[in-house]
Model the fold of this input.
Amino acid sequence: MKAKLLSAKEILLIVAILSVGFVMLALLHDSSDNLFAEISYEHGVRVVDLNSNHVFYLSSTPNVLFEVREGGVAFISSDCVDQICVRAGFQRRAGRIVACLPNRVILSVTGETDLDIFVGFK
Amino acid sequence: MSTRKLAFMGIMLAAVLVLSVVESMLQLPFLPPQFGRVGVSNVVIMYLAFFVGKKEAALMVCLKALFSLLTRGFIAGLLSLSGGLFSIFVIFALWWIIKKEKSYVALSISGAIAHNIGQLFVACILLGHWGLFVFYFPVLLITGTIFGTITAIFLKILITRLEKGEWKP
Done:
């Protein structure tokens, strides 16, 4: 017996769910150029300007290193097991969020921010 | 549990662990790791759910989560458990609702999406950050659909191969 891998109804279902997903992503799309990184951690939120290249860490999680380079931001090293945050690479678009769950640090790129920009930590 | 069943579950657990470990060593091109994995080991769990029993499938989900807990820590274990349990719960609920026209593809996609949503929900609670949900919900809806379809196709291939042989659980 040779059964078909996908029936017409199943293909319809797949296309329907995929379209819902892509429409939601399109609605969330933000094409801002002037980007900031908001880093949420245990003690609050740090906002970093993505226009100046530098490497830094938060004093509460010294084992997690961030880098701002060419308008993008990334986790460049972390002491977590999975390394999903590091392998996620540089984020250069508004709306992108990467989290390091074991360290409870969330890195989100945003086009506008209501928070004060924190400068001067390394 | 009979000796035969115990041996059978041991082999199934070995298959689940080998598939998930091998998969964790691979990185798919064009897919950043934060958007999830195909989850080929879930083929085994779906096989158990559809052809062996609900209890066996639920037990396998718990054992897989225990393995994550031991090898990758508390958070990985908790996420594996929450995703896995919500996934089989949704699969069984849908299976019960649409009894007559069972589609492995539809059930597998629902299971994959439920797995993603369950994990995302727990991750958001752990971090207290719901912005994560807003961005990852559509992404995980898309990856869940694609990966759920892939695992369902693997399951179909597996079933036809098993039917050809003499092998019975």
User: Anything to note?
Assistant: The mean pLDDT of chain A is 87. The radius of gyration of chain A is 19 Å. Strands of chain A lie at 36-41, 44-49, 54-58, 61-69, 72-77, 97-100, 105-110. The longest strand of chain A covers residues 61-69.
